[in-house]
């Protein structure tokens, strides 16, 4: 079973008793995360799971209610013995319950307390020295702690948490309110003290200095960090970070990154997404100094240009690169940076170029020939790429698992089907000037205005017969279905796609997520074939596919038993019959969006919500009888 995905393992485990016993092998449980909610049935589920050695537990939005306390007590009794990671994200548990729960987690390695505002609001968490000493011995193995998005975190409570987790190696303080003018909060006459009301940068700096020999990962995203503060951290003696996350730190500029690269040359992962003031100098410094870098994210760093991107060829170990919404990048710079070094191309597995609207087929083709190890490729909103790029992706990227081509409006059925248009002329040249230069307007004759020709009235899309002729004539490269292991596919708003290409190309046994939002060319017949050919689908987005009716939805819900997320936003032809079909067949559905489906009634959706045991959220805006 170790070669199966989690979804496949869950299905196999219910086949027979022997397979169920096989699924309980501890080796197979390493990547299983159990999510619990404070409901009356959760306690029974915990008792039933006592035989499994579950390493990861998430308790969602628990509070001080009787049900919540019951679940937490049973978690302590049955699940904490082998627990490696625990998440209390957003839970409103009390200080005493927190201490009781953690005192049972002797094997704990990772602790997530993000968004636990109520736990820190009073400032009395771990106020008793006996509690600190008790947990200090229990949590000696904790290496990672997440304190992100806690509004009431102070120096005092931060220090207490760090005291009971004294061997921490990874610390996350993203979106925490850090006061960088620390002296303003010291009592009169004091030069340094731990504040009981605010979290100060000086206090964090003191902790980092103490923990420097062990600390390898730091997350200070969405704080008011500046270049000078970054320098203060980077220059700490004995600190050798392997990962630094500064997402949304808008005050960090080139100078800070230059200092960082000079002191922290061991960095393997660097996330500077949303650091909008970074320019070419920062990226050039990263490329020249951080030779061990494996992960680089520069999402929305819009001042970066081809001048620095071409230096990426120096990062020979780079595996993950995110340049989403870097609008100034073009084919030339990216080709020099990513397609000039075979060693770099061989390492690259994840690439996000979403929103880089200037890249063309020339770059994509060359990239696919070099970076054959890619498993994740995002080219959404790259408006200039066409069927030629899809042909290259289908031919060379056989290990691809994630492919996003949303809003690439030049992609047609021919791209999905791997067909070449050598022998058929169409109107795809986007001009009807018979070779006359449209830029200079230098005409061969004095005739300036011409009557529209009959060719302008013809649809530029090939007919079904023409495509069939192409397939029979052997002008075939590779269908998209050649990427047999694809698990995520996004073709949203690829307006030239129709049933012909979609049904022939979307045939994947392992596909879990399919996004077809605003693909108006898909009809009931096409959707029926897609549902039959992709049995592992768990998430399906058909928003604004206005031609779909109850006929298609009936096949979808019967042929896709693993469906967990269904979006049919603004599919006006669906009726209450679809809701009844979903209620009957979708036993695992968690999220449903039927907003703006004018023929679906509010009462039908309400009945479905009350009857379903698995549903977590339903979007139902502007449906019949609703608001």
TrEMBL record:
Keywords of this entry: Ubl conjugation pathway
UniProt KW Signal keyword: no
Residue span(s) of domain F-box/LRR-repeat protein 15-like leucin rich repeat: 142-335, 463-616
Keyword Acetylation: no
InterPro entries: F-box-like_dom_sf, FBXL15_LRR, Leu-rich_rpt, Leu-rich_rpt_Cys-con_subtyp, LRR_dom_sf
UniProt-listed SMART domains: LRR_CC (SM00367)
Origin: domain of life: Eukaryota
Gene3D superfamilies: Ribonuclease Inhibitor
Protein's UniProt name: F-box/LRR-repeat protein 15-like leucin rich repeat domain-containing protein
Naturally occurring in which organism (per UniProt): Sinanodonta woodiana (Chinese pond mussel)
């Amino acid at each position: 079973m170790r070669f199966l995905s989690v979804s496949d393992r869950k299905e196999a485990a219910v086949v027979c008793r022997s397979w169920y016993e096989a699924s309980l092998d501890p080796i197979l449980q390493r990547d299983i995360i159990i999510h619990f909610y404070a409901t009356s049935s959760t306690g029974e589920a915990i008792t039933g799971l006592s035989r499994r050695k579950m390493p990861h537990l998430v308790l969602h939005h628990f509070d001080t209610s009787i049900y919540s306390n019951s679940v937490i007590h049973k978690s302590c009794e049955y699940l904490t013995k082998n627990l490696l990671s625990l998440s209390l994200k957003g839970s409103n548990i009390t200080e005493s319950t927190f201490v009781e729960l953690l005192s049972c987690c002797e094997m704990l390695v990772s602790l997530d307390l993000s968004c636990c505002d109520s736990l820190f609001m009073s400032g009395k968490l771990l106020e008793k020295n006996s509690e600190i000493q008790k947990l200090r011995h229990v949590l000696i193995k904790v290496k990672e702690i997440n304190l992100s998005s806690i509004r009431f975190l102070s120096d005092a409570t931060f220090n207490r948490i760090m005291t009971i987790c004294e061997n921490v190696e990874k610390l996350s303080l993203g979106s925490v309110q850090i006061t960088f003018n620390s002296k303003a909060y010291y009592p009169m006459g004091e030069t340094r003290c731990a504040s009981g009301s605010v979290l100060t940068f000086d206090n964090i700096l003191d902790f980092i200095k103490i923990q420097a020999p062990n600390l390898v990962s730091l997350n200070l995203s969405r704080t008011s960090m500046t270049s000078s503060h970054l320098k203060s951290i980077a220059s700490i003696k004995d600190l050798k970070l392997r990962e630094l996350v500064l997402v949304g730190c808008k005050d960090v500029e080139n100078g800070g990154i230059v200092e960082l690269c000079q002191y922290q040359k061991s960095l393997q992962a660097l996330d500077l997404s949303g650091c909008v003031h970074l320019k070419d100098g920062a990226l050039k410094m990263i490329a020249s100094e951080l030779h061990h870098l494996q992960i680089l994210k520069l999402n929305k760093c819009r001042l970066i240009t081809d001048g620095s991107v071409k230096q990426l060829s120096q990062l020979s170990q780079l595996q993950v690169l995110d340049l989403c919404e870097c609008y100034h990048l073009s084919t030339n710079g990216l080709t020099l940076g990513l397609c000039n070094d075979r060693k770099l191309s061989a390492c690259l597995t994840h690439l996000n170029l979403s929103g880089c609207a200037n890249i063309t087929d020339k770059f994509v083709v060359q990239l696919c020939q070099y970076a054959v190890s890619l498993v994740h490729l995002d080219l959404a909103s790259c408006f200039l790429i066409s069927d030629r790029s899809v042909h290259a992706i289908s031919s060379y990227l056989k290990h691809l698992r994630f492919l996003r081509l949303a809003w690439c409006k030049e992609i047609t059925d021919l791209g999905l089907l791997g067909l070449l248009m050598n022998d058929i002329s169409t109107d795809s040249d986007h001009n009807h000037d018979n070779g006359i230069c449209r830029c200079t307007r230098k005409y061969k004759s004095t005739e300036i205005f011409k009557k529209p020709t009959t060719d302008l009235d013809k649809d530029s899309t090939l007919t079904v017969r023409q495509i069939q002729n192409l397939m029979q004539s052997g002008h075939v490269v590779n269908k998209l279905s050649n990427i047999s292991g694809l698990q995520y596919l996004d073709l949203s708003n690829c307006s030239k796609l129709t049933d012909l290409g979609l049904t022939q190309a979307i045939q994947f046994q392992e596909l879990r997520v399919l996004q077809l939002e605003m693909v108006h060319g898909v009809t009931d017949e096409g959707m029926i074939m897609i549902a039959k050919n992709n049995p592992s689908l768990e998430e399906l987005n058909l928003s604004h596919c206005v031609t779909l009716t109850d006929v298609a939805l009936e096949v979808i819900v019967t042929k896709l038993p693993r469906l967990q997320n269904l979006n049919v936003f603004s599919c006006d032809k669906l009726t209450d019959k679809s809701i009844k079909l979903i209620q009957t067949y979708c036993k695992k559905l968690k999220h449903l969006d039927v907003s703006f489906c004018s023929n679906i009634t509010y009462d039908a959706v309400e009945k479905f919500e009350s009857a379903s045991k698995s549903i977590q959220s339903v979007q139902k805006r502007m449906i019949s009888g609703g608001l």
